[in-house]
Amino acid sequence: MKKIRCIVLEDEEPAQNLMRNYFNRLPELELVEVFDNALEASDFLEDNAIDLIFTDIEMPRLSGLDFIRMLSPKPHVIIITAYPNFALEGFELDAIDYLKKPVSFDRFKKSVEKVQRLYGNSFSEENPVSIAMYVKESGRMIKIEFADILYIEGLGDYIKIITKERSIVTLSTLTKIIETLPATNFIRVHKSFIINSDKIDSIDSANSLVIMNDKKEITLGRAFKTAFISRFKAIN
């Protein structure tokens, strides 16, 4: 069974060490990273898939609750804090469980078992196929399903992701983002464009153009044209 990939947000070193100890005692968990502030965790989630987040509430710069609020869609979350008055607010954000400090190992284990009962099937694949990615826009983490993407345009240090419903601008490059995309569908056709081959309407090879489903015409770059045309050679 696939391990449950987790991150921990905790700014106190003794509590961090305690959590590491608990994780080491439960082989079904994989502690991917520990963060002492939510902003670094947010940056990490842009490029890394996580199953479960353990977060303290009282954190520097950005509280654990505000961190949860800005994620879309909401991930699986377990709240850990010394302040029980935050419990209701945490559950309103769909937190799976609430652990009051100091957290005993038995209580920690029961919380993990609750996660497994509720979401066990979603952790069962050894090598799950990713169908979406998360990108940051205006301080929020936005989920984008690969099947919804028409094309991606490079804008220097930023990229614009075009779907049928919207466009999203985020801090990244085409070279970086293409490593996240499924190679079977996404192709670099120009120094400034990656396209989803499932969203091609037609190909005008004479004029080196790819016409997408939204009628956007994208020029085939000289360095990419030969490989692209060979891949989509018509069957006569």
Automatic annotation (TrEMBL):
4-aspartylphosphate-modified residues are 56
Which Pfam families does the entry link to?
LytTR, Response_reg
Highest taxon of the source? Bacteria
Specify whether Cell cycle is a keyword of the entry.
no
What keywords are assigned to this protein? Answer: Phosphoprotein
Limits of the Response regulatory domain: 5-116
Q: Residues in domain HTH LytTR-type?
A: 133-234
Q: Name one GO molecular function term.
A: phosphorelay response regulator activity
Alphabetized PANTHER family for the sequence: STAGE 0 SPORULATION PROTEIN A HOMOLOG, TRANSCRIPTIONAL REGULATOR-RELATED
- What protein name does the entry list? LytTR family two component transcriptional regulator
> To which species is this protein native?
Arcicella aurantiaca
